[in-house]
Design goal:
Helix 1 (about 1-20) packs antiparallel against helix 2 (about 30-50) and helix 5 (about 95-125) runs antiparallel to helix 6. The chain has about 220 residues and is mainly α. The chain has a two-stranded antiparallel ribbon with strand order 1-2. It folds into 2 domains: about 1-90, no CATH class; about 95-215, Orthogonal Bundle (Topoisomerase I, Chain A, domain 4), CATH 1.10.132. The chain is built from 8 helices and 2 strands, in the order H-H-H-H-H-E-E-H-H-H.
Length: about 220
């Protein structure tokens, strides 16, 4: 963040006050831009090759695909001059792809575990002596129907914010996880139907789960 802010502010000063003090053939702005970019890229590469936590991988990918090319290089004060300079990406393509794979693998596992924990909580609720919650006057499981959908959607949204390609790949992966989750949900529900017919809130729980189907569709 500090490097990005410094580069943006300093290059703005070069555009407004410095480059016109030199003859055009000196290409003063290009020299400044390339030096700043090369240093920024070397630091990004150094970070990418070190051990990074998941949140750091996400931030670095956001800089590579989003913040640096869109917010910084498309800034109204800099865009015209930067378009003349071929700076390239902050990271080599191979290293960027490696980080993307780590991020996608981690996010896929995170969402998968989140869905599994959600189902475990729901099964535990069925065993309690409590009537299901009502939403808009109908029995429904807010935890299951809403939380599962939000987990998948927010995962897709985070990936999409990095780049459309990363978003599409995560969506493809999560659309494999959802049927697997739904099969586990169905199996657990079938087991409850068979073994818990004497449960005091048996019927409301059945209705709540049937009502969840619309949300999942």
């Amino acid at each position: 963040l500090h490097m990005g802010k410094t580069m943006k502010e300093d290059l703005t000063v070069v555009v407004k006050y410095i480059k016109d003090l030199y003859p055009p053939e000196f290409n003063v702005f290009s020299i400044y831009a390339e030096l700043y970019h090369n240093y920024f890229a070397s630091q990004a590469k150094k970070n990418a090759e070190s051990h990074l936590e998941d949140k750091d991988i996400y931030l670095l990918l956001s800089w590579v695909h989003n913040i640096y090319p869109k917010d910084m290089r498309k800034d109204h004060a800099l865009a015209k001059e930067l378009d003349k300079v071929k700076l390239g990406s902050l990271l080599p393509s191979s290293l960027s792809k490696e980080l993307e794979k780590k991020y996608l693998d981690s996010e896929e596992v995170t969402v998968k575990n989140s869905l599994s924990k959600c189902l475990d909580k729901e099964i535990q609720r069925w065993k309690e002596d409590k009537e299901p919650e009502k939403l808009n006057g109908h029995f429904q499981s807010e935890l299951l129907g809403i939380f599962v959908i939000q987990s998948i959607y927010s995962g897709q949204k985070r990936a999409q914010d990095i780049s459309s390609a990363v978003g599409e790949e995560l969506s493809r992966r999560l659309l494999k996880e959802l049927p697997a989750f739904l099969r586990s949900y169905r199996d657990a529900f079938e087991e409850f139907k068979e073994k818990s017919k004497k449960h005091r809130h048996y019927k409301p729980i059945l209705i709540a789960n049937i009502n969840n189907c619309w949300n999942f569709r």
